[in-house]
Amino acid sequence: MWIQTLRSRYRQATVSSRLLWLVGGGLALGLTVLPLLIFIAGSSLLGRYEGASLANQYGSIYRGLFQGNWASWIVVLGPALLVLLSRILLSWWRRSARLAR
Asked: Is the dihedral of CA 42, 47, 49, 55 positive or negative?
């Protein structure tokens, strides 16, 4: 039920508001889900090392944010930047298609 409510709000929103929704969702994904996926991929592909835990993974990324670590910022901002890049490329593609007519 709440997904339908979000969909209806998203459809009724303006273009700039939709972009804020998508970028905010990307930031939330980068802060919560992406560290989990990195931990799972690292553990399954490379094996667990001594002292490795999910809490340490999140702690390492959040500490890196406060210390200005580029890797942590890329992990957190990556999904939001990917949304922005895809929007820019889509807009560029649509404009070039209009010019080709």
From this structure: positive
